[in-house]
Design a protein that fits this description.
single chain, 266 residues, alpha/beta, 7-stranded parallel beta sheet, 8 helices
Amino acid sequence: MKLLENKVAIVTGATKAKGLGKAIALKLAEQGAKVVLTGRASSKDGVEANVTEIQNSGGEAMAVLVDVSNPQEVDNAIKQVAERFGRVDILVNNAGVGFGSAMLEENSDKDWDANYGVNVKGTMALCRGVIPYMEKSGGGSIVNVASTAGIAASVGMPYPYVATKHALVGATKVLALEVAAKGIRANVVAPGAINTDMLQAAYAAIAEAESVSVEEAAAKENASIPLGRPAEPAEIADAIVFLAGPAASYITGIVLPVAGGMAPGI
């Protein structure tokens, strides 16, 4: 029997063909979970393609379109999952944004609100929504995806992104205390550089902030990682599946850097 046989897992932000959300969903499905992949309506094709890939490999999956910054859409999304499967055992909040500038005066209220709306408010709305279903089933696991930017600042990273990822870490620690008696665990994974399209955007931001080429920014980033390279999405997904599963049954309230040895702030 697989580790997550008959468990129902929600993975937000599972829209990209080479993204972390897809990697997480695939790993959960490999362990027997029924996986719900979510993304905004504008990313419908990407979400559905990832669902089809899981189904073609013998897994069970469904797509749910939701803007996590919209509380009503979040509530409706969780209802869709409950109507289909009757339970929620695992929630992986992978959806996140990184709008804004590394220069304080260049950040607008819109930048701050967009980051807070997804990275903190949206994430916690999903947590709030699944808790009753997890409690009814006797427990569950929540894994929130932050970043090493959630435990320390890095040159070139946008103010709103760093601030809201720190807030997510704090909120998850409080959540872990609140829901422990219900048999629900809540943890954070803090990835460093991941080999996705988002990493290329980060290189561009660093290059602009430091007036260097994108290639130079990438080389500098890799040089700061003891293992000398960014992670592959599947490597981050392995850590998330571990925290979501039975092998981590006595782990809650932690922040786990998965960053090739680069763990600022620890």
